[in-house]
UniProtKB/TrEMBL annotation:
One of its GO terms (molecular function) is identical protein binding. Residues 131-231 bind DNA. Pfam families: Response_reg, Trans_reg_C. This is Transcriptional regulatory protein KdpE. Coiled coil: none annotated. The modification 4-aspartylphosphate is found at residue 58. It comes from the Bacteria.
Amino acid sequence: MTSEQKGARILVIDDEPQIRKLLKVTLQAHQYEIEEAATGEEGIVQCSIAHPDLVVLDLGLPDMSGMDVLVRVREWSSVPIIVLTAKDREADKIKALDGGADDYVTKPFGMGELVARIRVALRHVAKSVQEPILKFNELIIDLAQRSVMRSGERVKLTPTEYDLLKLLAANADKVITQRQLLQQVWGGHHSETESHYLRVYISHLRKKLEEDPTMPKLIVTEPGIGYRFVTPDPEI
């Protein structure tokens, strides 16, 4: 665990005592500090007082929807929020991500997966200070020059391809929904035709950046939801 993650304060907002206990014991074993809240209102108050480094938020709360908590916290805080949900419908996941969640984990969940998602979210925050150059092993994106290098060679991208790559890479390891991509790259309202364009442009990027475009490891699809730029393991 990196130094910036060690001792990170995590707020767990969940009305199930057994879940809170499980999360507290497991996350404390990973050297995280844990705060708890059993209701949405309590969670909002705790978030404002405790200033957590990350929030784990259950969508099924007794006093208000977890989505309402998400929206209210996002009015004044950019703290990473990982949603826990028993709802596995794509529409629910998309709604949470569009509402400001950084990631989601579907119940029942494995603690190993949740801890991994927490580490990624905290790592992303640690990197969130805007850098002019993004480096992912042999892939280098120079934001100031709007240039992309792969294995020392310039990658020729169209303006739209570059804008898509920049948005995905700047939010590495986060799920970006199709709607978010369309709005930020194409702007305004979008149609089914533009949704098709998105798939085409993602395909073009994979052909230019992936070792095997048919089995992408860098730009992966979150079925029915969107895409995730995966930070590659450091080269040894």
